Amino acid sequence: MREEEGREIVFAGLFTALAFVIPMLFHAVNLGKIFLPMFLPIAVAGFLVSWKIAATVGIIAPLLSGLLTGMPPLYPPISPLMSLEGGFLGATISVLYRRYGWPWYLALAVANLGERLISGAGMYVIAEWFHLPGVLFSVVNVLLGLPGVAMQFIFVPIFLGLFEKRYGFLPGRQETSDERCKNRIL
Question: What is the pLDDT of residues 77-93, one digit of tens each?
Answer without folding.
Answer: 999 999 999 999 999 99
